[in-house]
C-alpha cells in the first residue's frame, strides 16, 4: 500500500511500512507496529501517534494537545516535546515526560527512568520504573496493563522512589519501594490480590502528606513498610466477599501527625449494620508514634471488633472513634481494642462526650493498666435512647393521674350538695420534677382543661351521680439528655356511677 500527498508542513508518504513527514492533528492518528517505521512525525493538537512492540519512530515532534502512546518494547522512539528531547531505545525509557493524555506502557523486562506524568497522562508498568513522578491528575498503574481491552498482570513489576503530587497511583501487583504521596488530589491505592498472583507489596518508606489519601484493599503485603501519615488519611478496606473473614495487615512502623486511620469505609456514619455482614480488621505494627485518630468498628454482642496491636513501643496521643452494630450486649461485656508492648502512648475515646451508645448502657474506653485499652460499659450513665424510653414511660401515668384528679375533685365537691343537673369545668396546671437512680429524669409542665355535665339522683339513704366529661391536656417534657418531648391527650369518658350515702358517708363504685 502506498499513500502520498501534501500537508501544511510539506510532502508526506507511506510505503512498505514506512511513514515519512506525517502530520497528525484534529483526530488524525498513526499506529506503528512491529517492523514498521515512522520518521519525522509531527503530533499536533488532537493527533495520536502509537508506537507498539517492535515499532520505530524517530524525529517525533510532539506539540501541545497531541498524544503519544509508546511501548518500551518498541525498537526506538525519539524526538522532542515541550520539555525537550526524549528517547526510548533497547527497552529503556529515559527522561520521558508525558502530558495531554499521552501514555507509556512499560513491558516486562524493560524499564523507565525518571519519567514525568503530567496533565492527565497515563503509565502502565509491567516492568521496572525508577524516579517516576505522577502529578496533575495523571494516572499510574503498577503490575497491570490494559491494551485494547486485553488486561495483563505481572508480579514482577517494580517501582522505586515514586513521587505522587496530586496524581493517582494504583498498585495491582508487584512491588512498590519508597513512595511519597501529597496534595488533596494525591491518591495511592493498593488493590486486593488478583487471582493467581501474589499480593502487591509496599516496601520501605510510604509517606502520605498534605491531605493525600492512602487506601488498601484486602490482605496486601505491607509488612516491610514504614508508613508515615501527615495530615492525611489511610482507609483500610476489607474487600472480602467471605462473611466473617477478617483482614490482617502488618507494618514495620507507623508514624502519625494529625492523621486518620480508618478501618472502615464509612467512619462513624454507618447504619443498619448486621453482625453477619461484618469483616473486621486487625492492624499490627512494630511501633507507633505521634498523634491522630483511629476509626474502628465493634460488635460487642458477638465479641468482635477492629483491633490495633503494637508489638513494640507506642508513644503519643491518639483517639479511638467507635461505631457499633447496635445489638445490645450482655451486661458486663468488654472488648479489648488496643494493645501495645510498652511506651507512654495515651488512647481515649473520641466519640462525643467520650462515650459510645451500645444497647442499654453507654460505653467508654478504659485503660486496663497493662498497656491495653478496652471498651467497657459505664453503668453510671445509661444511653440517651434508654433514658428517653424510661422517661416517657414515667411521664404518661402522671398525665393520666392529673386528668383523673379533675373527676375526683368534682365528685368530692358535690358530696352532700343537692342539685339536679349541672355543667362543670376544671383546669390543670402542674409542674413535676422526676429523677431516678438509673440516670433518667425529666421536668414536666402539664396544662389542660376538663369539661363535664352530671346529674344527682337522691335516694332514701344515698344519692347517685351520673355524668359525662371531656378533657384536653398538653404536656411539655424536658429530658435530662437535652432532648424535648411533647404529648397531647384528649381524654373523655362516663362519670363513674357512685352512691353517696349520708350515714355513713361512703362512696360506692
Defining traits:
6-stranded antiparallel β-sheet, mainly beta, 509 residues
Give a brief outline of the structure.
This protein is mostly beta strands and 509 residues long.
Span between N and C termini?
Answer: 115 Å
Query: How much helical structure, as a percent, in the residues?
Result: under 10%
Query: What integer value in Å does the Rg equal?
Result: 38 Å
Mean pLDDT across all residues, rounded?
Answer: 85
What sort of overall outline do the alpha carbons produce when their principal axes are compared?
elongated
Say how many strands there are. 47
Describe the protein in words.
The protein has 509 residues and is mainly beta. Among the domains are: 1-90, no CATH class; 384-508, no CATH class. 6% of the residues lie in helices and 58% in strands. The strands form 3 sheets. It has a 39-stranded mixed β-sheet that branches. The longest helix has 30 residues, at 384-413. It is elongated and about 135 Å long. Residues 266-276 and 496-509 have low confidence and may be disordered.
Amino acid at each position: 500500500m502506498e499513500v502520498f500527498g501534501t500537508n501544511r508542513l510539506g510532502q508526506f508518504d507511506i510505503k512498505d511500512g514506512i511513514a515519512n513527514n506525517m502530520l497528525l492533528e484534529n483526530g488524525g492518528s498513526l499506529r506503528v507496529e512491529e517492523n514498521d517505521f515512522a520518521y519525522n512525525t509531527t503530533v499536533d493538537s488532537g493527533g495520536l501517534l502509537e508506537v507498539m512492540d517492535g515499532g520505530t519512530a524517530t524525529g517525533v515532534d510532539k506539540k501541545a494537545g497531541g498524544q503519544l502512546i509508546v511501548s518500551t518494547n518498541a525498537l526506538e522512539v525519539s524526538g522532542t516535546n515541550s520539555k525537550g528531547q526524549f528517547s526510548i531505545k533497547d527497552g529503556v525509557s529515559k527522561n520521558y515526560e508525558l502530558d495531554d493524555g499521552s501514555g507509556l506502557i512499560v513491558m516486562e523486562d524493560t524499564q523507565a527512568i525518571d519519567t514525568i506524568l503530567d496533565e492527565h497522562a497515563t503509565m502502565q508498568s509491567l516492568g521496572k520504573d525508577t524516579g517516576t513522578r505522577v502529578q496533575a491528575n495523571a494516572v499510574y498503574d503498577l503490575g497491570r496493563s490494559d491494551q485494547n481491552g486485553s488486561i495483563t498482570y505481572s508480579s514482577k513489576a517494580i517501582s522505586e522512589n515514586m513521587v505522587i503530587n496530586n496524581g493517582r497511583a494504583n498498585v495491582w501487583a508487584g512491588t512498590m519501594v519508597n513512595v511519597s504521596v501529597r496534595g488533596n488530589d494525591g491518591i495511592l491505592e493498593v488493590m486486593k490480590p488478583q487471582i493467581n498472583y501474589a499480593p502487591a507489596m509496599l516496601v520501605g518508606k510510604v509517606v502520605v502528606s498534605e491531605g493525600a489519601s492512602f487506601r488498601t484493599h484486602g490482605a496486601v503485603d505491607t509488612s516491610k513498610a514504614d508508613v508515615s501519615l501527615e495530615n492525611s488519611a489511610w482507609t483500610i478496606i476489607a474487600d472480602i466477599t467471605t462473611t466473617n473473614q477478617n483482614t490482617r495487615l502488618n507494618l514495620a512502623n507507623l508514624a502519625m501527625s494529625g492523621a486518620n486511620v480508618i478501618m472502615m469505609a464509612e467512619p462513624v456514619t454507618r447504619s443498619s449494620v448486621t453482625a453477619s455482614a461484618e469483616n473486621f480488621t486487625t492492624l499490627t505494627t512494630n511501633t507507633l508514634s505521634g498523634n491522630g485518630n483511629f476509626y474502628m468498628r465493634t460488635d460487642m454482642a458477638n465479641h468482635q471488633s477492629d483491633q490495633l496491636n503494637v508489638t513494640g513501643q507506642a508513644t503519643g496521643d491518639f483517639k479511638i472513634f467507635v461505631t457499633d452494630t447496635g445489638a445490645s450486649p450482655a451486661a458486663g461485656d468488654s472488648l479489648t481494642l488496643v494493645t501495645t508492648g510498652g511506651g507512654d502512648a495515651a488512647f481515649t475515646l473520641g466519640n462525643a462526650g467520650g462515650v459510645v451508645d451500645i444497647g442499654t448502657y453507654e460505653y467508654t474506653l478504659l485503660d486496663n493498666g497493662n498497656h491495653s485499652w478496652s471498651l467497657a460499659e459505664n453503668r453510671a450513665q445509661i444511653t440517651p435512647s434508654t433514658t428517653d424510653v424510661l422517661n416517657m414511660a414515667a411521664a404518661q401515668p402522671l398525665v393520666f393521674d392529673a386528668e383523673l384528679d379533675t373527676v375526683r375533685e368534682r365528685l368530692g365537691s358535690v358530696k352532700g350538695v343537692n342539685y339536679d343537673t349541672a355543667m362543670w369545668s376544671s383546669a390543670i396546671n402542674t409542674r413535676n420534677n422526676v429523677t431516678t437512680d438509673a440516670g433518667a429524669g425529666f421536668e414536666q409542665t402539664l396544662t389542660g382543661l376538663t369539661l363535664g355535665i352530671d346529674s344527682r339522683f337522691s335516694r332514701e339513704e344515698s344519692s347517685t351521680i351520673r355524668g359525662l366529661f371531656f378533657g384536653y391536656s398538653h404536656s411539655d417534657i424536658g429530658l435530662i439528655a437535652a432532648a424535648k418531648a411533647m404529648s397531647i391527650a384528649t381524654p373523655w369518658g362516663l362519670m363513674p356511677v357512685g352512691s353517696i350515702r349520708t350515714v355513713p358517708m361512703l362512696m360506692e363504685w
